Amino acid sequence: MRYCGQVPESRVLTVGFVPGTTPGKWIRRWEERMPEVPLRSFQVSEQEQVRVLHEGRADLALVRLPVDREGLSIIPLYAEVPVVVAPRDHEVAVFDEVPVAELAAEYLLQDPDLVPEWRDVSEGIRNGTRKPLPEIGSMEEALDLVEAGLGILILPMSVARQFNRKALRYRPVTGVAESQIGLAWLTEKTDPVIEEFIGVVRGRSAESSRQPSVRARQDAAPKKGSGGDGKGAGQGAGKGAGKGFAKSAGRGAGKDAGKDAGKGASRVTGKGAGKGTGIGAGKSAARGAAKGRATKRGRR
After folding, report:
1. Rounded Cα gap, residues 74 and 67, in angstroms
2. What's the CATH fold of domain 13-80+179-220?
């Protein structure tokens, strides 16, 4: 049975992710919680990260911001430290971190507009001597050019680590804004499955009431109707009435028992009065009468 009636049996969740991102932990959580909805993931280039959503090749994508947000819903997830990537014998290798101004004389093997902080200090751009970018088809090709000593790259640290090479070195760059990773999807395509994955990425527990699967189970659970409440009320009233009845019956029984005991005692006393107890009873009565008169005189 599907966790939600709005999810078709053939539903498969597809997630794209750009290099440097690590969606593995979220995929594992999804597979543990939602085995009935298979998840397929694949890596996409930054050039395609939004296109795969508009073309329907992915339901969601881990994208590197900024991107064109038209038609998209985006949740920022975390920031990335920028680093400079250079040959291992480059002077940047001796520093713990490098100010971007120290790279002004370097040739950046990227579109300068992607790193505006470097663009604004570049000597080649300022004096008009910067050469056109060579054709670069992939990250591997760009790293080949760096390794050959033809220039540098400024990348998120996660990307530099993923494509790390022994012949290269990378160091954090100060003065360059951190990049951000976000989760994106087409707003008009939002459905319970996408909302479920969003909750997983946000760190919601499997029993969070904000998860569509949990709400669906709650809606499907049988509700306690008025009949159940009446039964409980009847049982409570019955117990209370029983207790009250028992107390009243006990009191009545005590009174009746007292009356019966008194009558029995009178009958027994009456029979014995004529056989010797009458003299004692007469003396007791005389003493009581005397005490009563004395008490009256004392009050006066």
Report:
1. 10
2. D-Maltodextrin-Binding Protein; domain 2 (3.40.190)
| CA end-to-end distance (rounded Å), the chain | 98
Q: Sign of the C-alpha dihedral, residues 79, 201, 30, 38?
A: negative
- pLDDT tens digit sequence for 201-258: 998 887 675 566 676 666 666 766 544 444 444 444 444 444 443 344 444 444 443 4
Tell me if domain 13-80+179-220 and domain 82-174 are identical in fold. Answer: yes
What phi, psi does 69 have (nearest 5°)?
Answer: -90, 0
pLDDT tens per residue, range 197-206: 999 999 888 7
pLDDT for 43-99, tens place per residue?
A: 999 999 999 999 999 999 999 999 999 999 999 999 999 999 999 999 999 999 999
State the DSSP string of 60-78. Answer: EEEEEES---TTEEEEEEE
For the entire predicted model, the pTM comes to: 0.66
Cα–Cα distances in angstroms (integers) from residue 269 to residues 274, 278, 280, in the given order: 9, 9, 12
Q: Return the domain boundaries, the chain.
A: 13-80+179-220, 82-174
Which pLDDT score, from 0 to 100, does residue 298 have?
46
Instruction: Give the CA angle between residues 294, 296, 300 to the nearest 5°.
Output: 115
| Dihedral sign from CA coordinates of 105, 108, 113, 115 | negative
Dist CA 43 CA 17 (whole Å): 5
CATH number for the 82-174 domain, one of 3.80.10.10, 3.40.1000.10, 3.40.190.10, 3.40.50.300? 3.40.190.10
241: its two tokens: 């009435």
Comparing CA positions, the residue from 15, 7, 46 lying closest to residue 184 is 15
Distance CA 69, CA 53 (A): 11
Give the per-residue pLDDT at 95. Answer: 95
